[in-house]
Amino acid sequence: MIGRSDEYEKMYRLEGQLWWYRILHERVDAVLRRHFGTQRDIQLLDAGCGTGGLLRFLQQRGYTRLRGIDGSADAVAFCQARDLPVVFLNLNHLDQFEPETTYDVIVCNDVFCYFDDTNLIPLVNQLVRRLRPNGILITNNNAFNVFRGQHDRAVGSMRRFVQKDLEQLLIPAGLQIRTATYWSLLLSPLILLMRQWQDWQLRRGWRALEEAESDVYMPPAWLNETLYRIVRAEQTVFARTPFGSSLFITAGK
Ligand SMILES: C[S@@+](CC[C@H](N)C(=O)[O-])C[C@H]1O[C@@H](n2cnc3c(N)ncnc32)[C@H](O)[C@@H]1O
Fold this sequence. Notes:
By secondary structure, the protein is of the alpha/beta class. The chain has nine helices and seven strands, in the order H-H-E-H-E-H-E-E-H-E-H-H-E-H-H-E. S-adenosylmethionine binds next to loops.
């Protein structure tokens, strides 16, 4: 993804409105409220914060001690345009970033897919080292290879995960999984169909590989709102669901 200025520009423009980001950001906020109640001065690091949508969302909800790191100059420039406290750093060198600072919360959403095991295990160990004893790690990741498609190509994602992969990664690093759920179950058939259709177009040569674009685009407003409400309803009824294109996990020491 790093280097795809067009994808960062879309993320920056749409992450405040697009149903998928709204659900994810609200979910993170719900975890924070569950763990920390009304406390707003918890120290939070967003590792691989992209263009800063989550940090801005949390800032608007009164959280005051936020930091972000990203390894893309485009992403950091967009964060700076929003006046967010974000630094440019490759997460492979996280040990060099304010080594003595620890956090109540570390968020690492949709970043693990850019790391192979050789780099991911040290990254997770670094994240765990930075968590305070009562701290929590929140991590959303793309799930199930069956959803692999044009979106993954466009954003350069190397892998998808199932819960067992995350358990094998987080538990040896000293964390316990507190909650884990795939999402969205109800939208899975639609997303699967879309990915199959996109792949079919590529195979038929109707689209070139270089034209692959992510799923970050704005549908008509009514559809965006409908998708948002479906996922909200699903999450209100079910605490966890067994299938979906994303896996949302919270873990603590
Ligand atoms: C799919 S985006 C997710 C952004 C954000 N967490 C969100 O949920 O919207 C992945 C982000 O990870 C960043 N990233 C990927 N590899 C990285 C690395 N080695 N060091 C720092 N950031 C990295 C990318 O620049 C990108 O902003």
